[in-house]
Design brief:
Length: 174
């Protein structure tokens, strides 16, 4: 008779059991509604043969974007955090705007052009379980804020933002 290998933990990962922490944009962290752990793809090559090509594993991992969705506060503080960050990196109006990026924003940040970020994943009993850490995160896209006079419900406005990060991300048990 074959012995089946049973997993030791039968609890499933919950979609609502997380919290985020952006060192540079704390208001986005507080209002965060959705975040993803980016997917990754290992490149490959084909070895040509007379009959059929044989796939060979590649050497470089390519990571997807880190996407975040957050509710916009009525003072637009969290939206402006990312807006100012993008504007200063991509199209500053003056030198002061760009040099303000280089100065540390707060609490031990050393290079504020990029920011570290982490996602803390909780157990189904809301205890911290894993920390997923990203190094040198920076924004590449900020979604629109849509207003509508024809809205029938007062749903809060959610905006999405996309980020890239250097290297890989780490997953560590807490």
């Amino acid at each position: 008779m074959a012995i089946l290998n049973q997993p030791t933990n039968l609890n499933l990962l919950q979609t609502v059991a997380f919290e985020t922490n952006f060192l540079r944009i704390p208001n986005v962290s507080y209002f965060c509604q959705e975040v993803n752990i980016p997917g990754m793809v290992l490149g490959n090559s084909l070895l040509p043969t007379p009959f059929s090509d044989i796939p060979i594993e590649g050497e470089k991992l390519t990571f997807d974007q880190l996407n975040v969705s957050f509710l916009v506060d009525e003072d637009l503080q969290n939206y402006q955090e990312i807006y100012s960050w993008l504007l200063s990196m991509g199209f500053p109006d003056n030198f002061t705007q760009f040099t303000s990026l280089k100065s540390p924003p707060a609490s031990g940040a050393t290079d504020s052009i990029k920011s570290d970020m982490n996602i803390m994943v909780h157990t189904n009993k809301s205890n911290p379980n894993y920390n997923i850490g990203f190094k040198d995160v920076f924004p590449i896209a900020l979604g629109p804020i849509n207003f509508s006079a024809a809205a029938t419900t007062l749903d809060p406005i959610a905006v999405s933002a996309s980020f890239l990060f250097t290297s890989t991300f780490t997953i560590s048990k807490i």
